[in-house]
Amino acid sequence: MSPAILVFLWMLSLSLKNEIDNLAYPPVFIPDPPTLNNFVQVFAENSMGRYFWNSVVVSGGATLIALLVGIPAGYGIARAQAHKLTVLILIARMTPALSYLIPLYTVFQFLGLSNTLDGARDHAPGHHRADHRLHHGRSLRDACPRSWRRPR
Q1: Which of 3, 31, 90, 138 is the most exposed place for a label (fewest CB within 10 A)?
Q2: Distances in whole angstroms, Cα of residue 63 to Cα of each of 55, 60, 98
């Protein structure tokens, strides 16, 4: 059995026990009786519904955007037999994601997108439209300094 499955089962066991049983020595794997009070307490004392909805919005939006951009792009690259572009995309995919982290964070800080849902969605693959509305109601173009802008 995989150690990851054992860790998951232990976590599940802890979630179904009360606090006294969690601290018992020797530890008890199967709670007697199991309780759902821990789950009730988490949802009552925190806004878990909001956190769940944020996760759905960010992951769903990122997935949809990646599909909307990736499927036509993949079809176009395969149809055109663009071998140099394919190699470039492969190199970009092989680059460790952490190497993009500092530049992305710097740009998000500059645009005021850190700690926002728009900022979390903006890092989705292919989601770099210049007309994307920020949470302040202004466009990405308006958020950039004038010296960076191309004339319309």
Answers
A1: 3
A2: 12, 5, 20
Residue type, 95: T
Query: Could you give the CA distance from residue 92 to residue 89 in angstroms, rounded to a whole number?
Result: 5
Give, rounded to a whole angstrom, the gap between the first and last alpha carbons of the chain.
61
pTM of the model: 0.45
Give the helix/strand (H/E) hosting 118.
helix 117-122
- Pairwise CA distance, residues 52 & 116, whole Å: 15
Question: Distance (Å, rounded) from C-alpha 50 to C-alpha 97?
Answer: 28
- HSE-CB for 106 with a 13 A CA cutoff: 5
State the residue for tokens 């970009």: 92
Token pair in block for residue 19: 């606090």
Contact of 104 with 125, CB cutoff 8 Å: no
Query: What string of DSSP letters covers 32-51?
Result: SS---HHHHHHHHHS-HHHH
For the chain, the domains span 3-45, 49-148
pLDDT in tens, 113-140: 777 766 565 555 444 443 333 334 445 5
